[in-house]
Fold this sequence. Notes:
By secondary structure, this protein is α+β, with helices and mostly antiparallel strands.
Amino acid sequence: MSPAGNEPGTAGHSVGNAARLIDRAALRDRYAEVRATTERLCSPLEPEDFNLQTMPNASPAKWHAAHTSWFFERFVLCAHDPSHTVFDERWEYLFNSYYNAVGDRHCRARRGGLTRPTVGEVMRYRWHVDESMTRLLERESTPPEALALIELGLHHEQQHQELLLTDILHGFWDNPLLPTYDAGEVTPEPARDPGEMGFVAFNAGVRTIGHAGDGFAYDHESPRHRVFLEAFEIGDRLVTNAEYAEFIGDGGYARSELWLDEGWAAVRGEGWRGPLYWHRGGPPGDRDAGEAPRRMFTPRGDLALDPHAPVCCVSFFEADAYARWRGCRLATEFEWESACAAHAGCGVPAGGNLLESRELRPLGAVERTGSSPIRQAYGDCWEWTRSDYAPYPGYKAPPGAVGEYNGKFMCGQFVLRGGSFATPRSHLRATYRNFWAPATRWQFSGIRLARGGAEA
């Protein structure tokens, strides 16, 4: 999901396709639902939590809540509702993320120091924007280009909903007390054994990649184009904690031959010994995974390491090293899209551990079914691919500030596919491209193996 550790990668294909019909009444209902979800995700937080920022790449929950409102005010209301009164003109400097076309902005690494505006003022800002947005959505004369921008803004906010959770978890991990974000009403049960990993084979041939439907997609999911794939096999489920622990036990973090050079430098420089939130259960402040980690920190709290759940919060470098240790590789994003669309279509099938399940942690793979041999294609963990984040043939960024969303970040990132337990279902599709820098570990990212093909 994200430009250089900022936001999940997005830009409005819908903005470039404003002529397509968008149901205004349905969009109004969706607006209310998405905005309410953000506030629900904020509800477990105490006032002191809203300013928490433990690294430059993360942002405080208060900033996420305000920035998503600023997006609607700046790009929709200021352009399409003359009756709207800007809440506070000074806030544009605070809550602009990276839009150079809009103007200068506050230092991202210092967002956590903004004790003012208060949480209450930010929530009043949200309600002020909501009032104007509701009025605009009820107006039959609202033009199609405004509806397209609203649709983009809703997907933008859904991305920030996941970022809110990843950033809060990182902040709580930095607290020696390991506070729980949301314990839930039921104690999490361990996942069932998913059985031995199988591989699903695909023949060589030409595949068509990219968004083709009439629904929303980001600009970087198009143009639709053809690629040739050699015959390949892809894992039928994600790699589990137990399987990854074997890699650690075999000295995986001490064997330079398994790692890309930049990844090995990160292992040595950062002291990586396991996935980000694994630890051995020592005294407060002890975050060492050690040789035999026993605990994993999740939004549901500090839990016993579940051997059958998917390994989560690993970097591209770790995923690549593990795959090499297994004698496999990571799939390309084109192999992933071809395989998962072939068995599930372009939409997201029923089931899958996504935000709506409210599990707030990765779950084990369900049993195989004949109709869908590829398990966990959507949800649980984002899946690193071997593909650089690059433009599709013929890609052009949209004009204006929203065109800064994706194109300028197409350097030094790798693509992830599939979504996580924190991704909203209505936000996903088979062509969705997330992207992060290869050393990123605080996102909910896991591993699916592949073998054969051109890189065998």
